[in-house]
Amino acid sequence: MYADIIIGFSKDITEARDSIKNAIEEANNTIMVKGISNGQENEAARVTKWEIKDKILKLSIESGTLVRATTAALRLNKHLTNILGKEFKIGLRELRAECIKFSIQSKYELDEELTARITAIPNIIDAEYESGHINVKIDEMTEHDLKNNVPDRLVSRVKDILAQAGKHAAIAEDILIVKKGSTKQAKFNKDPVQLALELGWVKEFPGRGQWIYTTPYTQLFEIIKRILIEEVAENLDFQPFMLPKLIPLEVMKKMPGYLDDIPEGMYYCFPPPRDPNAFSDFKEKLKITKEISKETLKNALKDPEYVLAPAQCEAFWQFYGKETLSQDDFPFKLYDASGWTYRWEGGGVEGMVRMHEFQRIELTYLGTPTQIVEIRESILDRCILVADKLLDMEWRVNAALPFWAREGSAAIDIQKSENVPAYDLEIYMPYRGPRDKSEWLEITSCFIHKLKFVDSFSIREVKNRETWTGCTGLGLTRWIAAFLATHGFKPEEWPENIQKKFNKNYKLPTSLMWPQKR
Q1: Would residue 513 count as lying in a domain?
Q2: pTM above 0.85, yes or no
Q3: CA 51: distance to chain centroid?
Q4: Within the chain, which residues score under 70 in pLDDT?
Q5: How far apart, in whole angstroms, are the C-alpha atoms of residue 9 and residue 94?
Q6: Based on the domain organization, do 241 and 291 belong to the same domain?
Q7: For residues 331 and 364, what is the distance between their CA atoms, to the nearest angstrom?
Q8: Burial class of residue 112, CB neighbours in 10 A (0-12, 13-18, 19+)
């Protein structure tokens, strides 16, 4: 990392030149290498150039990865302030980074899409590829930004985007677009997660892939959730259920393609034993060391017996399981919108669009083959109406092959709807780059299972007539991310029907350090 640092003082510092020189030389050999092991000196920070102009000290700092230049600037600022205050009665007036540059090794060159995604991050003004590295330039940072580790978060965000780019490049395949909406004018082209953090709409939580959602986000979430329930679920006569989210492994093993294909994608729950003495060692260690001994805790727990719901429809099929139903009563249309879904995403997390904890509306349908095809089509049509007409987002629909349907399937026959396992409704995200080259965001997946779940859960029809199932997941958290990526964070620029329902007179519990003030 490279940083041009400006430190302003209360009066002319020309007379303190020798003291400043000595302080910088001392810092280069002490506080700039603090925490660095022998042999890692190249990963430390160092002042490579400095000059004095009246009350201003200009510094150039270069660094490796262990002590970043911006961290070094804060250390040096404190060091100089102590020395000049004691010797010359000179006080600090200003600290800022005029320019910050960093470089990340990458085997992928920057195309237009990737450049657009990186420069859409607030405060990043340029990105270019050179000799196996992505070079990124950050705009001016205040002292407050430096103390709040904003540069570090920007570096992490760019790394996340590059990691995602590598993943998508590795698994890229033809997209089967079956229908699409009209092109819409982009009103906003920034990465919503960074602005959400700065505005205090979300706050980071220690758990990976989790956020604390504050009042404005929660308001928007509830507005769009209500629209989807009214316009999709209730409009199509789906009835509400409330389902368990702690799923026994005995139920989970009946879900096609989960434990046998992606066991690494779930959270496993280990119940405690009934004997409270089983935790005696754990409690004593915690009292003495004030640290959590995970090994001791693990020894006290029983074997895994549950997973946190990764699909949300598990309990629906268990509800029908081993029951004998009559086709005369078909179709059955049920939905659940009562809580969280949990997935350990193997490809990593990404902002507010790919998380370990998120909310969905899960619709399930059971009936004759003809009924299931018609219901899936009607759900897709209603979702398109909401995305296009009510939320004014640019959309397309792809034919897809979900993981549980891949066995024995080499391709998708898009000529007949009943032969398409999944339709994915996707939204264009302007910050990701040109619409014809960038990755769109899947916000809803509409599935037909045919007999797969009927057989797996032993669902019977009284006369053995063919019965199919299907489900649709409306990814609420992704619908919100798509809306914010399309329209931004100013309610007055949102569609009128959303504006009317959003109460701008909210009050966040702010502190000295949060939210980050720009």
Answers
A1: no
A2: no
A3: 43
A4: 166-174, 346-348, 404-413, 517-518
A5: 7
A6: no
A7: 10
A8: exposed
Q: Which residues contact residue 82 at a Cβ distance below 8 angstroms, ignoring those fewer than 6 apart? A: none
Provide the token pair at 174.
Answer: 């033809």
Number of domains in the chain: 3
- Shared domain for 227 and 141, answered yes or no, is no
Residues 157 and 201 in one domain: no
pLDDT digits (tens, 9 = 90+) for 251-308: 999 999 899 888 999 999 999 998 989 999 999 999 999 999 999 999 999 999 999 9
**Residue 180 forms part of a structural domain:** no
Residues 322 and 282 in one domain: no
**Please, where are the H alpha helices in 124-231?**
143-147, 150-171, 192-199, 215-228
Q: Which residues of 134-157 are buried (b: 16+ CB within 10 A; e: fewer)?
A: bbbbbeebbbebbebbbbebbbeb
Residues 125 and 242 in one domain: no
Structural domain for 361, as ranges: 190-267+309-499
Are 297 and 344 part of one and the same domain? no
Sequence-separated (6 or more) residues with CB below 8 Å from residue 183: 394, 435
